Amino acid sequence: MNQIPTEAQEQTTLFQWAGMMAGKWPELRLMHHIANGGSRNAIEARNLRRQGVKPGVPDIFLPCARNGFHGLYIELKRQKGGRVSVDQKKMLLALNEQGYKAVVCNGWEEARNTIVEYMS
User: Fold this and answer.
1) Which domains does the chain have, with CATH numbers?
2) Which among 110, 103, 6, 94 has a CA at the least distance from the CA of 61?
3) Within 10 Å of residue 64's Cβ, how many Cβ atoms?
4) Rounded distance, CA 85 to CA 55, Å?
5) CA-CA distances (angstroms) from residue 27 to 12, 15, 32, 59, 73?
6) Measured on CA atoms in the order 36, 93, 100, 113, is the torsion positive or negative?
7) Could you report the per-residue pLDDT of 59-107, keeping only the tens digit for each?
8) Which burial class, exposed, middle or buried, applies to 54 when counting CB atoms under 10 A from its CB (0-12, 13-18, 19+)?
9) pLDDT surpassing 90 at residue 46
10) How far apart are CA 6 and CA 111, in angstroms?
11) Contact by Cβ (8 Å): 109, 77
12) Strand partners, 73
């Protein structure tokens, strides 16, 4: 039985693909991961909140304006089993209202297709 890749594996594959496609779309070199999640101890979590870390911020940002959007945010989930939190839903809605394209993608291939559509 095939195992479903982890979110980290999906994201690694997406960034490998983006690196290969940067010849076609140099803007992909600007794409980056926002290390907002993960487990932290209480003191570190409190310090990060003081420094501006906010719950619900999407995993990936492509700071490239296209098709009337200021940039593309992707909340990347596993192909199966990923859950979008209430904070993530609120943040995605707020980002869309501010003129960004902000979406949830299940798996790196869906994220790749979203980026290709966005860049075209």
Assistant:
1) 7-119 (3.40.1350.10)
2) 103
3) 19
4) 9
5) 18, 13, 11, 18, 14
6) positive
7) 999 999 999 999 999 999 999 888 999 999 999 999 999 999 999 999 9
8) exposed
9) no
10) 14
11) no
12) 61, 102
What are the residues facing 72 on neighbouring strands?
62, 101
The answer, yes or no, to whether residue 48 has pLDDT greater than 90, is no
Tokens of 15: 């960034």
- Locate 119 and state its tokens: 């860049």
Whether residue 27 is predicted with pLDDT greater than 80 in this model: the reply is yes
Question: Which residues are within 8 A (CB) of 105 and not within 5 positions of it... i.e. 6 or more apart?
Answer: 74, 75, 76, 77, 111, 114
